[in-house]
């Protein structure tokens, strides 16, 4: 998309988007806390408890399908109303979803909880379509992955503290006579709604640069003529399905006696470490994929890793002995970034391969050797969404928003694949259900290889045309 930007610094908009991504990540990760809470409260099977993710991420599919159909028949809505209004609409709808937890908790009905999650997911769908694309437009295309990784890093900061703070809110602060009740979700989600409304007010008053396409926003299915987008849609589907499936079952996985036999009050800290890894990796990815001189990137990545690790370990209520293993994965993450040489597709291939290896170790091990590798996966999930997203929409021109809606539609993977994995966990056990994420990362690896080959072919064509 060739865009015209009003002369306004992109720093303030980027900071505003970063705050939004943080809150967005925090509330999304609360699902991992809700699953064991509602499973116990309503005596659910693993499959039934995964309806939490089905309702939430299923809304992404429904919402983005509606968006795509509107853009197909009537033209791109974002081009008509603008990114700012789209983002505010998404926040308000998300706040309404949070408010619906009040009647869900009052009547203690699982179906109402699922309805609230569906509305919340619809709001986040609008944010996915508008905010991700908006961040990629706040500067040159070459550094789009870097900017998106930076905002996604703060999204991950939200997912890191959600298991700690959210777990405290639900499992400790709002217990009634020491017992879990539906009411323990009522006050936390009203607080979230209030914060979202406040954020919408702030964004309404912040001067954001406006983007207008110099090309006409055509109706039709033009975005699907790009192979990188078509294959990228499945990349997002499998990535979100793998990440959500792992996070959703981690607390139950750690409770298994042949793994660690941990209580929820302890396991939520390890869950925070899983999501904290994604935050660390995204900060490192923002540096690695930036336009900084190659000679300085390694130094900055090491310094950033030290700083962010201190924050993560400071937040998480684990001793150094319990969390020191994670340092090994951080070092491996930095090495993989260096080998990736700032190339999004090459880095994607490396990280997918490492995740496959870590999962296989977890599946065929017991005790801490089964737990530690799966916690390290968060680090290597870090850049996957932003890299797949930017590789998929690269070169789409006037079809960027339409392509973005298709990619957001693919977040359906977070609804369907955890449901499949939950069914497998019921039938063959949690540990062996992790073969589902193995399949997911295998596809992502193949997509990265496709993008590498595509870049090489395009480079060869440019070379021949110059001669």
UniProtKB/TrEMBL annotation:
First-listed, main subcellular location of the protein, grouped into a coarse class: membrane
Location relative to the cell: Cell inner membrane
One GO location term (cellular component): plasma membrane
Keyword annotations: Cell membrane, Membrane, Transmembrane, Transmembrane helix
Pfam families: MFS_1
KW Cell membrane (keyword) present: yes
Gene Ontology molecular function: any one: transmembrane transporter activity
Transmembrane segments: 12-34, 54-74, 86-104, 110-135, 156-175, 187-208, 229-252, 272-289, 298-316, 322-340, 347-364, 370-392, 404-424, 430-452
Domain of life per record: Bacteria
Family annotation (PROSITE patterns): MFS
Gene3D superfamilies, alphabetized: MFS general substrate transporter like domains
Domain Major facilitator superfamily (MFS) profile as annotated: residue spans: 13-456
Keyword Chaperone: no
Topological category with respect to the lipid bilayer: Multi-pass membrane protein
Protein name in the entry: FHS family L-fucose permease-like MFS transporter
Species the sequence originates in: Pedobacter nutrimenti
């Amino acid at each position: 998309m060739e865009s015209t930007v009003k002369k306004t610094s992109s720093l303030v908009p980027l900071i505003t988007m970063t705050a939004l991504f943080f809150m967005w990540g925090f509330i999304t990760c609360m699902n991992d806390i809700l699953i064991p809470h509602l499973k116990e409260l309503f005596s659910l099977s693993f499959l039934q408890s995964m309806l939490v993710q089905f309702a939430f991420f299923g809304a992404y599919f429904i919402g983005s399908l509606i968006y795509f159909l509107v853009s197909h028949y009537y033209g791109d809505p974002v081009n008509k109303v603008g990114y700012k209004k789209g983002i505010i609409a998404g926040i308000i709808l998300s706040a309404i979803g949070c408010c619906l937890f009040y009647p869900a908790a009052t009547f203690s009905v699982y179906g109402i909880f699922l309805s609230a999650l569906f509305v919340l997911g619809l709001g986040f769908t609008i944010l996915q379509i508008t905010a991700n694309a908006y961040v990629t437009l706040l500067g040159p295309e070459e550094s789009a992955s870097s900017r998106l990784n930076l905002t996604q890093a703060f999204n991950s900061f939200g997912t890191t503290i959600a298991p700690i703070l959210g777990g405290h809110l639900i499992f400790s602060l709002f217990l009634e006579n020491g017992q879990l009740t539906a009411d323990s979700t009522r006050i936390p989600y009203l607080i979230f709604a209030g914060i979202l409304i406040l954020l919408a007010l702030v964004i309404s008053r912040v001067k954001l640069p406006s983007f207008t396409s110099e090309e006409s926003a055509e109706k039709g299915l033009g975005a699907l003529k790009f192979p990188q987008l078509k294959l990228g849609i499945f990349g997002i589907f499998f990535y979100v399905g793998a990440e959500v499936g792992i996070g959703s079952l981690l607390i139950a996985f750690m409770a298994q006696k042949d793994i660690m036999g941990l209580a929820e009050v302890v396991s939520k800290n390890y869950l925070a470490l899983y999501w904290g890894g994604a935050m660390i990796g995204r900060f490192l990815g923002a540096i690695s994929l930036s336009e900084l001189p190659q000679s300085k990137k390694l130094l900055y990545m090491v310094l950033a890793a030290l700083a962010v690790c201190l924050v993560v370990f400071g937040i998480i209520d684990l001793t150094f002995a319990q969390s020191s293993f994670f340092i090994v994965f951080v070092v491996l993450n930095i090495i993989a970034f260096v080998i990736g040489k700032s190339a999004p597709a090459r880095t994607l291939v490396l990280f997918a391969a490492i995740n496959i290896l870590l999962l296989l170790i977890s599946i065929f091990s017991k005790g801490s050797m089964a737990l530690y590798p799966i916690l390290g996966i968060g680090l290597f999930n870090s850049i996957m969404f932003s890299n797949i997203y930017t590789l998929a929409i690269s070169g789409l021109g006037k079809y960027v928003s339409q392509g973005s809606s298709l990619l957001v539609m693919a977040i359906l993977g977070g609804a369907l694949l955890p449901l499949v994995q939950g069914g497998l966990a019921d039938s063959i056990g949690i540990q062996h259900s992790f073969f589902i994420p193995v399949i997911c990362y295998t596809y992502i690896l193949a997509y990265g290889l496709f993008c590498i080959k595509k870049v090489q072919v395009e480079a060869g064509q440019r070379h021949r045309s110059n001669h």
